[in-house]
Design goal:
Layout (H helix, E strand, L loop, with lengths): L4 E3 L15 E3 L15 H5 L3 E5 L17 E6 L6 E15 L5 E8 L12 E4 L10 E7 L10 E3 L15 E5 L5 E2 L3 E8 L4 E14 L5
Parallel strand pairs: 1-2
Antiparallel strand pairs: 3-7, 3-13, 4-8, 4-12, 5-10, 5-11, 5-13, 6-9, 6-12
Length: 217
Amino acid sequence: MLAEAIVRRFSALKTLGEATAASRLTGFLSLAGAQVEAERQERCRAGRQFRAMGYSTGTAPVQGIATSAAAALVLWNNDANRSYIIDTIEWYLLSGTSTAGVTTLAMVAPITATLPTNATGVVVANTSMGGLVSKAVFGQSYTSPAPSGMQQWGVVSTTGQLGVVGGVWSNVSHCDVRGGIIIPPGKAMYLQPLAGVGASPLYVPGVSWTEAELDLE
């Protein structure tokens, strides 16, 4: 196998006037690796990126990691072929006053006997208004399976602080998952906000993900 590359400045393919285009090297002969495109640009352009947001009512946080079945938020992959690769998870303060912040508990597991339904007010959207339509279901107060074996609650790192309603970034608790969680076809991701009692805080979640056919091992 022969791979060719050329040292040149970046340029859109349509301006090169070439039937084929060689890979681009930098002036130091390093392979230029997508230095121009934004991180999720191509997935968004291909209509593979989606986002679920919003409930008419918020969710109260838990104060400990659940060791048995508990009511949780659920993102169900109701697709027979595509997996959901999670990009971000956020919590927005809807009402009340939070403590220092929110930690996200997440678990990927099968759904229970009752099929989830979208909570009131939920919107699942293609972030580029592309042709693909997601089959995702984003439910609230759904009973998760009891953690067992490989199906355990995991702590997803969180940045940002939540204080009072009405702020901007300081009132968003953000988890940059970057593909570290995958929901296989037919499975679900359960979420719980872990935080102090505060003054009756209620949180609204937001999740973004990419949908793709994967060879899961």
